[in-house]
């Protein structure tokens, strides 16, 4: 049995305290074997240096479209509907499985280099995402995104069937690091008749759901007009608010919808950067937390962010949370760290996001030896307000080292970037 000792650093514990401790990782089971005072932690077979560092749970990006890295900077400064229809969807229509593979690998490289160890992906050609995740060593809950608007009956059914197939086929792949979900794109881009029929099937088979909800006002109003109820009430009527389900955005929510999320245990993935960039609005994050809703954090796709750095996202979540609540004490650093770790992990159904014996050994070591992280009054504050993804020294997932001293081990960074660069340029050219 190989045991890896992460030695010499400070460790962020689940109660948000920081203590001088070593962490022993069981590389075979992929779990944390011990954590505590260096004198009490058993010797390891190997050591990973965490001196001048803070060991944190690996960050969890709970809503993204990974291969959209190919569209980073392709179209900016537009609101959601026009941006999707005029700029994004035409290029996505050109993406081949090989393109999605290249964009996914680029995204995984970026995630490993910024301390992210798990994510949720909604996209297409998901078999490529599964293989990329298997090779790169990360953890993911992924699914095929369904859009039925603008499609005929056969096309719409085909999309729904594909999403079910992907969820069935890949659940448990990559030694259990891959889990799946049924993923209707949103409550307005998938027709009610399809939601009714296929959600019931997903429910029977115990498959969780992930979808965009209440992202913009333009998405809320038509549902209120047609259904006479709020989007999440409509979702509940369609059996889409189970405790295993997680929705992205939740920007425009009323009090009854917040209560509904809390009662049903449906998680919300907050995507502050995307919500600001597309001017979608400010999510009522402090209200969600106060109501007891599980809130996770996501970057959304790289084209509306424009990176996959969850450190940036934490800072944005804290800042925007205060503006939204008109209260500087709202969404404090500790809440934000919880969102990016335990909150996101719990939304995705992974036993990650906390440094404790028995939990998944999904970890990051943040280098504190930097001008912008000096002095060390409060390291939780630093994680949210001052640190960046490039401060991460080592990244581990499932007990395996994915980045050591900033060198990514499972991927050839130069080759990945070159492939992505070429394929992105060619796809945009084909679309034009
Ligand atoms: N099967 C569908 C693809 C759906 S994947 C999920 C989709 O979400 C889109 N997307 C990315 N960011 C956002 C967002 O912020 N809101 C809504 N959709 C988004 C993304 O471009 C992608 O097309 C099809 O063939 O069109
Ligand atoms: Zn999205």
TrEMBL record:
Keyword vocabulary terms for this entry: Hydrolase, Metal-binding, Zinc
Cofactor: Zn(2+)
Domain Amidohydrolase-related, chain residue ranges per copy: 54-401
Amino-acid positions noted as binding substrate in the UniProt annotation, renumbered to this chain: 92, 185, 215, 300
Similarity comment text for this entry: Belongs to the metallo-dependent hydrolases superfamily. MTA/SAH deaminase family.
Cofactor binding notes: Binds 1 zinc ion per subunit.
Record protein name field: 5-methylthioadenosine/S-adenosylhomocysteine deaminase
GO MF annotation terms: 5'-methylthioadenosine deaminase activity; metal ion binding; S-adenosylhomocysteine deaminase activity
CDD domains noted in UniProt: ATZ_TRZ_like
Task of the protein: Catalyzes the deamination of 5-methylthioadenosine and S-adenosyl-L-homocysteine into 5-methylthioinosine and S-inosyl-L-homocysteine, respectively. Is also able to deaminate adenosine.
Catalysed reaction, written as an equation: S-adenosyl-L-homocysteine + H2O + H(+) = S-inosyl-L-homocysteine + NH4(+); S-methyl-5'-thioadenosine + H2O + H(+) = S-methyl-5'-thioinosine + NH4(+)
InterPro entries on file: Amidohydro-rel, Deaminase_MtaD/DadD, Metal-dep_hydrolase_composite, Metal_Hydrolase, MTA/SAH_deaminase
EC number: 3.5.4.28, 3.5.4.31
Gene name tied to this protein: mtaD
UniProt-annotated binding residues for Zn(2+): 63, 65, 212, 300
Lineage of producing organism: Archaea, Methanobacteriati, Methanobacteriota, Stenosarchaea group, Halobacteria
EC top class, as a word: hydrolase
Signal peptide as annotated in the record: none
Species in which this protein is naturally found: Halorussus limi
Pfam families xrefs: Amidohydro_1 (PF01979)
């Amino acid at each position: 049995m190989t045991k890896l000792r992460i030695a010499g650093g400070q460790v962020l514990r689940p109660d948000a305290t920081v203590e001088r401790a070593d962490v022993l990782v069981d590389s075979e089971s992929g779990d944390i074997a011990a954590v505590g005072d260096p004198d009490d932690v058993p010797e390891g077979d190997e050591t990973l240096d965490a001196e001048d560092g803070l060991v944190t749970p690996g960050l969890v990006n709970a809503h993204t479209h990974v291969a959209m890295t190919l569209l980073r900077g392709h179209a900016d400064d537009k609101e959601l509907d026009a941006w999707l229809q005029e700029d994004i969807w035409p290029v996505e229509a050109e993406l081949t499985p090989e393109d999605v593979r290249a964009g996914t690998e680029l995204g995984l490289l970026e995630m490993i280099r910024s301390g992210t160890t798990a994510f949720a992906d909604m996209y297409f050609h998901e078999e490529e995402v599964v293989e990329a995740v298997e090779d790169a060593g990360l953890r993911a809950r992924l699914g095929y995104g369904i859009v039925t608007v603008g499609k005929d009956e056969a096309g719409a059914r085909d999309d729904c069937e594909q999403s079910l197939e992907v969820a069935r086929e890949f659940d448990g792949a990559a030694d259990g690091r891959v889990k799946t979900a049924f993923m209707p794109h949103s409550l307005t881009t998938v027709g009610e008749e399809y939601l009714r029929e296929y959600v019931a099937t997903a429910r029977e088979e115990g498959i969780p759901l992930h979808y965009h909800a209440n992202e913009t006002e333009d998405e809320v109003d038509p549902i209120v007009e047609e259904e006479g109820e709020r989007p999440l009430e409509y979702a509940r009527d369609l059996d889409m608010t189970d405790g295993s389900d997680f929705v992205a955005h939740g920007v425009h929510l009323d009090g009854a919808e917040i209560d509904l999320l809390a009662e049903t245990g449906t998680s919300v993935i907050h995507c502050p950067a995307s919500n600001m960039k597309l001017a979608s609005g400010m999510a009522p994050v402090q209200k969600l937390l106060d109501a007891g809703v599980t809130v996770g954090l996501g970057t959304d796709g790289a084209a509306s962010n424009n990176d996959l750095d969850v450190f940036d996202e934490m800072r944005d979540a804290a800042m925007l949370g205060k503006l939204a609540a008109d209260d500087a004490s709202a969404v404090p650093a500790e809440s934000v760290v919880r969102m990016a770790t335990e909150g996101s992990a719990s939304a995705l159904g992974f036993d990650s996001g906390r440094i404790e014996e028995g939990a998944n050994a999904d970890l990051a070591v943040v280098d504190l030896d930097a001008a912008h992280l000096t002095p060390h009054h409060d390291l939780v504050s630093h994680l949210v307000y001052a640190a960046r993804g490039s401060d991460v020294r080592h990244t581990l997932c499932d007990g395996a080292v994915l980045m050591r001293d900033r060198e990514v081990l499972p991927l050839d960074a130069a080759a990945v970037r070159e492939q992505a660069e070429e394929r992105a340029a060619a796809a945009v050219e084909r679309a034009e």
